[in-house]
Each structure stands twice: as C-alpha cells, then as structure tokens.
Amino acid sequence: MEFTKVTALMKATALELAILTGHLVLYPSGIVAERLSAAPAPDTDTAGDPGPDGEVRQVRARGRRPVVLLHGFVDNRSVFVLLRRALLRGGRDCVESLNYSPLTCDLRTAAEVLGRRVEEIRERTGHDEVDVVGHSLGGLIARYYVQRLGGDARVRTLVTLGTPHAGTTVAPLADAHPLVRQMRPGSEVLRELAEPAPGCRTRFVSFWSDLDRVMVPVETARLRHADLVVHDVRVSGIGHLALPVHPTVATGVLEALDADGPAAPGARDDGTGTASVA
User: Under a CB-based contact definition with an 8 Å cutoff, are residues 218 and 235 in contact?
Assistant: First the structure.
C-alpha cells in the first residue's frame, strides 16, 4: 500500500514539473490582457434599458452564461489555455480571463477589480449572471467578491481549484508578501470569509487534490461554511499545477457549471460531501 502511495506521488511530481515547464514557456503570452468578446447581436424578444435618447433598446443575451477565469498568485491567464479550450468546446461561447496586477498587495483590491469586470461583461453581453472559475488565490479573491462585495447577485456558480479556503501553511518564508499572509490560517481576510453569509445566492464547487503540495494540509481546499451551498470534489493523483490543466478536471468543471443543483453531475458522492473524479 505504501509503495502505491509513493508511486502515485512520484507520478504527480513528474506531471507537476512537466506542467511547470510548459507554463513557463506560455507565461509571456499571458501577460498582456486578452481581447474582449464581442457583444451579442440584438434580439427583439426582451426589452433592455433606455438609451441616451430615452428609447428602450430590445436586447437579449444569447447562449450560456459567460465564464470568468481568475488565476492564482504570481500567475496570469496563460494557466487557463487548456481549460479555456475545453469550456469553449463544451458550449461556453464567452470565456474570458482576468489578469490582476502582480503588484496587488490586498486580495480585496483584486476582488473589486473582478467586480468591475463582471459588471462590464454583464453590460456588454446582456447576461444578468456570470460563472467564475478561480485557481488557488483566484478562488479566494472570487469568494471575497461573492461573500463580501455583493457578488452573489452576479455570480451563479463559483468553481475553485486548489483554493486555500481555510488557509495554507506552505512556504513560511513567503510571508514577506502581503497576499501570502492573507492566505494563512486565521488571517483577517479568512476571518471575514468565515463570518455568517445568510442568503448567499452563489453555488460553490471546490475541487481539491489529495496530492496538492501547495495546500497544507490538503483539506484546506475544501470549503466549509454553514451558510453556503457547497459541493467538494476530490481529485486523486495530481498536484496543484495540474488542477487547471487536467482534462478530467476540465470535464468536472464544465459539468459543475452546467448543473442546476449544488452537486456536480457524474461525480461519485462518498456520503461526506466530497467526490472523486480522477
């Protein structure tokens, strides 16, 4: 049994190194902000807001809800190249990535930036709601927007991939950076997120991996909050960097976004609120 665990860890480590190498190659391409998706064509079925001349425009959102992808610490949108492709192939015709500044020192600031982007997407596409997928710190930023800045009125489903919902103790020397300190157990931000959130309308789906060496302990990526509708999805055999890349996870993310209820279709519920997809 121990040999099996060691083998699985070695395979996951090798995959992490391969992904890291590929990501370093792609990283420069993700520094510049991406081009925004075009607005939907006009439709005469639903009345929109009055224009500058007082005339009511007839506009209806087309297709499924837009998806916003939010990267993690010291990263950029290039981490989502494969996930973005999978979502587009799965029928999501509006998938956009948000880069927040690497100089950001407070995740609350990044959450405000996310809020402004969501409003811009809603106005441009005509959709009332969006979905958000956040990797690592990106999931925590999106959660802050939803819980503390009224984003639950705008975000239908928030999917987090390897997000330190309860704080991670990895790399103690990294505490020199304010964002890292905010991801520590017991930080002011995490205490805010632990406060009551009655009536929160957003669905949460948190993917966590049993071999994630950035989440210490690994269970910190599971979301526990009495007021939130949450489904935890356990992913076996891959590490932190593989979560936004692995095809099985991408399938699970797409199913979670398309689901109407709190659970992700196709996942095997083990009776404790977690499931395994890989």
Answer: no
Farthest CA pair distance, the chain = 72
Return the axis-axis angle of helices 81-89 and 247-258, rounded to nearest 10°: 50
Q: Rounded to 5 degrees, what are φ and ψ at 204? A: -115, 135
Q: How far apart are the first and last CA of the chain?
A: 19
DSSP assigned state of 13: H
- Which stretch of DSSP H or E encloses residue 67? strand 67-70
Rounded Cα–Cα distance for residues 164 and 152 (Å): 20
Residue with tokens 């891959």: 238
Quickly tell me which residue has 């049994």 as its tokens: 1
C-beta separation of 134 from 162 below 8 A: no
**Residue with structure tokens 């910190």?**
220
Q: Is 97 exposed, middle or buried (0-12, 13-18, 19+ CB in 10 A)?
A: buried
Each of the 278 residues of the chain gets a pLDDT tens digit; together they read: 576 777 887 888 898 999 989 888 988 888 877 777 665 554 534 444 554 444 433 344 668 999 999 999 989 999 999 999 999 999 999 999 999 988 899 999 999 999 999 999 999 999 999 999 999 999 999 999 999 999 999 999 999 999 999 999 999 989 999 999 999 999 999 999 999 999 999 999 999 999 999 999 999 999 999 999 999 999 999 999 999 999 999 999 999 999 864 444 444 344 444 556 55
Separation of alpha carbons 79 and 227, rounded Å: 31
Contact yes or no for 113/136 (Cβ under 8 A) = no
- Length of the chain in residues, anyone? 278
